[in-house]
Design a protein that fits this description.
The complex is a heterodimer. By secondary structure, chain A is an alpha/beta fold. In chain A, about 35% of the residues lie in helices and about 10% in strands. In chain B, helix 3 runs antiparallel to helix 11, helix 5 runs parallel beside helix 11 and helix 6 crosses helix 7. The chains are: A alpha/beta, B alpha/beta.
Chain lengths: ~475, ~425
């Protein structure tokens, strides 16, 4: 496919107009508090709408084209979910409203929790964490509360080398030492795990299928090893799209799981957020969940703050309610049968694309993958090329590049997750593009992308000389330092 | 596709899942049509009472302002809302520039040098600010004003529990509602890594002795603010704040039952490498054109893992873009007018309520922003019920949060209220026996 992204030499808002500051009326504020001016320009609405329309045309979403970003589950975001979440009955209610006036919101949250419990095979769910990483952090606080309630002070969290970076960071933020264990043939090395677990083990964090897209077949033994040491098993829900209706974290003996509503349940990613990262637990951890929990009392729903063992709160209110509305609508639309088909189709798409691409790029480890797979571009190094060069060139064909350089154990990794909402034609055209790219001259790839709004961006310069705001830029210009333009 | 894979059915793709962990589908109802979904969700949500049916005077950090239609139109550009984090800058310049502009607008409001693209909300921004204060200073104590929301305090405790930071609270002056400077001094010691207060605080009260607080605070000063108030009040950067946080929801985003929200996070230049979250920087492309990209990523979890400044990955980027669009549409003078109008309306509303026999408002002698405390002679729960009966939603009861204050609630008014709503409230309160 030919692709040419729009480019506008679009000025910053600050460059488009002037601010004009009126003084604040006398007596409105004590003199010592008054602000004299505010440097935000006043522009006609028409100009602002054009500004953002142009900027949107220099962006790329799932609605623009194929977006096979591994571990991010960039599936189509259905429009009805957007519309429902913007209804005044969803958008304009206040979190402090009397419970009697927000029964719809409480019911929706309660029912969404029930749905997530069924999907994950868990006994209770909190919707409060605002994103996947917040879910991980919450899950670890729950594990901590559980152990401490039993008089145990544990200090380590075990993470496999294939894990998402957030697993390591969440464990550190919760105050734990991170013990990283190496994989064996792309799977958890049971011997390494056995050596790592002991009475200090708070939890083992794992996603299954793992980030290579490989299902960990020894999951019950893994659970036994971790539980045998008194630790808990944590499920990173980033890869849940692979297994719905086929297995569940609960069935695999996980104790804690987080969901990414913005992945599996297709709430849009919004250029980086908002997402939602609900957490499910088995019964022994239920009493530690964040407050409030929702109770059903006949036909009425209530917030319950009376939980003496709670970990407290991880978000100001109840989590990203706008995302709950979308996910709830999506799950209703798909139903149990539909969600099972979602996983079947996601896995079929991934394996089909894998079968095409393994002919031209190296596929480390076993063939059968779940919803995603990881290729290695290491052989391209002979031609002076790297995974990033292929990724950048893919943009010229109208595709968002896959995730690259992750997971770290694959050299020159390219991590591809097509999702279930893509057609065979799209998958073929993507594979065709890779075929073509691999026959192109290194110069073409090295200088790619050519058809995007801008060519390769100097990220080193951005980090060496940080210009993070209009204000910092103005100062640098005054000081006569290095300046982008 | 099955043929290409040489398999007869999709089941073969799941043969690697052992029988012992298999489930046979999900015990959820079967899928329904789009029309049925829309009808069902509308019915469920229909049980909620919006301010159109039930005018509300709730605030407490979440504000229902009028949102120009253009904000929603801009936010609904699907190139924005269906995109991922802009890891590939060449194809994401629009999202990147929008977020850079958001950072720039936040810096203008707060008087700071740099801002990240968002935290989840004000509370998690506070948690992250305390962790950052610890990274900067090393001390094991964080001192915070007690005149902050209970939710923020709870999240602050969750976020700092991992590194074992002790939270020391500073009482407010019973007369003014402002930080008691003597108590503040007594709480500060060599282990104090940071001091936090809000301006305006949870009671809507402006702190006036900000320079004194800055001189008392020995280490990192963190200030929380309603960003709209900063349009007309002295920015915290002006009085030496190291970190400024706040809730950005009110800048063009609906309350949404408390989420998605927008955690504002801005810092002084010297601290940028210790910041949490995603940051957009200005650079050039290979041809020398101005271009933007994510920067200082070596602070972040996907590179630094357990040594990252935070675990945050997904944030609230789309809310940031909407907020930037809102600020642009109102412009500097529009924001200042809105802030001044809200302040004036709240002041007049408090004055009118104060004239009623059973109420005193505000209970603190100080300048307020867009909300204020109302003390009643009868339990507030009764006032609340009476207002509901009259088709109005009163403020947030503070009886369980600050029991020492007595029968007190926090009322807020914004531009979604006309004179008619405020008159109705005054009349309804006046009619309560």
């Amino acid at each position: 496919m030919k692709y040419r992204q729009a480019y506008f030499d679009e000025p910053l808002l600050f460059e488009k107009g002037r601010s004009e500051t009126q003084p604040v009326a006398d007596g409105l504020l004590p003199r010592s508090l008054e602000r004299k001016s505010l440097d935000i320009p006043n522009l006609p609405e028409n100009d602002i709408v054009r500004h953002y329309t142009r900027l949107s045309e220099m962006s790329f979403g799932v609605d623009t084209g194929f977006y096979p970003l591994g571990s991010c589950t960039m599936k189509y975001n259905p429009k009805f979910a957007e519309e429902l979440s913007s209804l005044p009955e969803a958008a304009r209610i206040h979190p402090c409203q009397d419970e009697g006036t927000v029964q719809g919101a409480l019911r929706l949250m309660f029912e969404l929790q029930q749905m997530l419990m069924v999907i994950a095979g868990m006994d209770a769910v909190t919707l409060q964490p605002a994103a996947g990483a917040a879910g991980e952090f919450t899950g670890l606080l729950l594990a901590k509360a559980y152990h401490e309630d039993r008089g145990e002070h544990r200090t380590q969290v075990i993470v496999p080398d294939t894990a998402h970076g957030t697993n390591f960071a969440s464990a550190a933020m919760a105050g734990y030492e991170v013990i990283e264990i190496p994989s064996k043939q792309g799977l958890v090395d049971l011997e390494a795990l056995k050596t790592a677990v002991n009475s200090k083990t708070l939890a083992f964090m794992l996603t299954n299928p793992n980030t290579l897209g490989i299902f960990e077949p020894d999951i019950l033994e893994i659970a036994e090893i971790v539980h045998g040491a008194g630790g808990l098993l944590y499920y990173d829900g980033a890869n849940l799209n692979a297994i719905m209706g086929k297995t569940s974290p609960g069935r695999m003996n996980f104790d804690i799981v987080h969901f990414n509503l913005h992945k599996t349940f297709t709430t849009p990613h919004g250029g980086g957020g908002p997402g939602a990262g609900p957490v499910g637990v088995k019964e022994p951890l239920e009493s530690y969940l964040p407050v409030p929990v929702i109770r059903q009392d006949g036909n009425e729903f209530k917030f319950d703050y009376d939980k003496p063992k709670t970990i407290g709160k991880v978000h100001s209110w109840y989590g990203n309610f706008g995302m709950f509305v979308r996910a709830y609508a999506y799950i209703l639309r798909m139903g149990g049968d539909g969600l099972t088909k979602v996983s079947e189709r996601a896995v079929l798409n991934a394996n089909y694309l894998r079968s095409r691409l393994q002919k031209v790029l190296e596929l480390p480890y076993q063939e059968l993958r779940k919803h995603e797979f990881v290729l290695s571009c290491a052989k391209l190094k002979e031609r002076g090329l790297r995974a990033a060069d292929v990724a950048k060139r893919l943009m010229d064909f109208g595709f968002h590049p896959p995730t690259i350089y992750f997971p770290h154990l694959v050299d020159e990794a390219m991590m591809i997750e097509p999702t279930e909402t893509e057609s065979k034609e799209t998958l073929d055209s993507f594979a065709d593009a890779i075929d073509t790219i691999l026959t192109e001259s290194p110069e073409v790839l090295k200088s790619a992308p050519h058809n995007t709004a801008v060519s390769r961006v100097d990220e080193v310069m951005a980090a060496r000389n940080p210009i993070l705001s209009w204000r910092m830029w103005q100062e640098q210009k005054k000081a006569g330092g290095e300046k982008p333009q | 596709m099955l043929d290409a894979l040489g398999i007869a059915s999709v089941d073969e793709l799941f043969k690697d899942i052992p029988e012992s962990v298999r489930i046979n589908g999900l015990t959820l109802p079967a899928g329904i049509s789009e029309a049925e979904v829309v009808a069902k969700v509308r019915k469920v949500l229909g049980a909620n009472k919006t301010p159109e049916k039930l005018p509300s005077f709730l605030g407490a950090g979440i504000y229902d302002h009028f949102i120009p239609a253009a904000v929603r139109a801009i936010q609904s550009r699907s190139e924005f809302y269906t995109s991922y984090t802009p890891y590939q800058p060449e194809i994401s310049q629009g999202v990147l520039q929008s977020l850079f502009e958001y950072q720039s607008l936040v810096c203008e409001l707060t008087g700071m040098d740099a801002a990240n693209t968002s935290m989840y909300d004000w509370s998690t921004a506070l948690g992250e600010a305390a962790l950052m204060a610890h990274r900067i200073h090393g001390g094991k104590e964080f001192v915070a004003s007690r005149a902050i929301g209970r939710e923020r305090l709870q999240v602050l405790r969750s976020y700092t529990s991992g590194i074992g930071l002790a939270i020391k609270l500073v009482e407010f002056d019973a007369n003014t509602g402002q930080v008691d400077l003597d108590i503040l001094k007594s709480q500060i010691g060599p282990e104090t890594c940071g001091v936090y207060f809000e301006n305006p605080n949870f009671f809507g009260v402006f702190e006036e002795k900000v320079d004194e607080i800055r001189s008392i605070a020995p280490s990192v000063l963190v200030v929380g603010a309603n960003p709209l108030s900063l349009a007309i009040t002295r920015p915290p950067g002006d009085y030496g704040a190291d970190i400024v946080i706040g809730e950005g929801q009110g800048l063009g985003n609906p309350p949404s039952f408390g989420g998605p929200l927008l955690g504002i996070f801005a810092v002084k230049k010297e601290h940028i490498r210790k910041m949490p979250g995603r940051i957009i920087g200005m650079s050039k492309d290979a041809e020398g054109k101005r271009a933007f990209c994510m920067t200082l990523q070596t602070r972040e979890q996907h590179i630094r893992r357990q040594n990252a400044t935070s675990n945050i990955c997904t944030n609230e980027a789309l809310v940031s873009i909407a907020s930037a669009a809102y600020m642009a549409i109102l412009g500097g003078s529009g924001l200042r007018k809105l802030a001044a109008d809200n302040l004036t309306a709240a002041r007049e509303l408090a004055r009118s309520i104060n004239h009623l026999r059973r109420f005193k408002a505000p209970m603190f002698k100080a300048a307020h922003f867009n909300e204020f405390t109302v003390r009643s002679k009868i339990p507030y729960s009764r006032v609340h019920r009476e207002l509901l009966r009259r088709g109005l939603h009163g403020g947030l009861s503070l009886e369980d949060r600050f029991p020492e204050l007595g029968h007190v609630a926090l009322f807020s008014t914004t531009d979604v209220h006309g004179e008619a709503e405020r008159e109705r409230l005054i009349k309804a309160l006046g009619a309560i026996e």
